[in-house]
Amino acid sequence: MGNPGLSDRGLGMDVNTKCPICESTESKLVFEYHKPPPEESQFSLKNGEKYFRQVFQCGACGHYRSVHEMKIDQLYKKSYHEANYGMNGLHKAFKRIQALPPESSDNFYRTKRVCEFTSAKAFKQKTLLDVGSNLGVFPYAMKKNGWTCEVVDPSPQVVKHASKTLGIPATQGDFLKVPLKGPYSLVTFNKVLEHVSNPTAMLSRSSELVAQEGIVYVEVPDGESASQEGKNREEFTLDHSHVFSFESLKRMSQNAGFQILSMERLQEPSSKYTLLAFLSLTESING
Ligand SMILES: [Zn+2]
Fold first, then answer.
1. What is the SS3 assignment for the chain?
2. Which of 35, 169, 195, 210 has the lowest tally of Cβ within 10 angstroms?
């Protein structure tokens, strides 16, 4: 996903007034932050810069967008992984997640869900592209379930971790631009689209890479459930430019050219509120 292009969210953009999913201009301010919420990683601000951001909700589709002018352009190239894991912390964090008992692991249930759903397709070749792989726990688990996995991520550290430590072929770069082979029987976005400036464009790109009978799997934070518990929920931290509603995930998927095979909301073992969708270019699960 490269530099997710947060720089275009500065002055002059209509992001303050227009919903990035359905383009409605009807919106209301739901949360305002003058300091980082307790659960947020401490991203570095420029000297003298004040922390200030607002979350607006679209009156038409319920989508939440975070609006601010803080300079965090380099978030995903460098500081994000330093802020969250330290320079060499990816492997350590990977091992920590791997050591979780299944009932405490979001990834255990994610893997189970995706394997069960895709088993109905009986793919001849089980090829997976995981977009924005981060720690790599998901493609690593899918590899153990017989999938041939690849990842793409803007971070050199993530790519090095995937290829060197996990033995998963990895491409470094901006998902919107980097050449990838395909077609893949499965393309996955696990907690990725909330971080980018244009999630519909990201999802659209996967329609060129997924096989005609393939599946795209999406997980995003569920703003409707999380907002019931107030503004300090982790779903609304600074690194999430978008927080979804059931309707906004549905509309984005359709706008990106997909049919919705299944959608649901759930609370994960980590306590995260999540919306998930299985998408396809064709309507029928049997292709
Ligand atoms: Zn909207």
1. CCCCCHHHHCCCCHHHCCCCCCCCCCEEEEEEECCCCCCCCCCCCCCCCCCCEEEEEECCCCCEEEECCCCCCCHHHHHHHHHHHCCCHHHHHHHHHHCCCHHHCHHHHHHHHHHHHHHCCCCCCCEEEEECCCCCHHHHHHHHCCCEEEEEECCHHHHHHHHHHCCCCEEECCCCCCCCCCCEEEEEEECCHHHCCCHHHHHHHHHCCEEEEEEEEEEEEEHHHHHHHCCCCHHHCCCCCEEECHHHHHHHHHHCCCEEEEEEEEECCCCCEEEEEEEECCCCCCC
2. 35
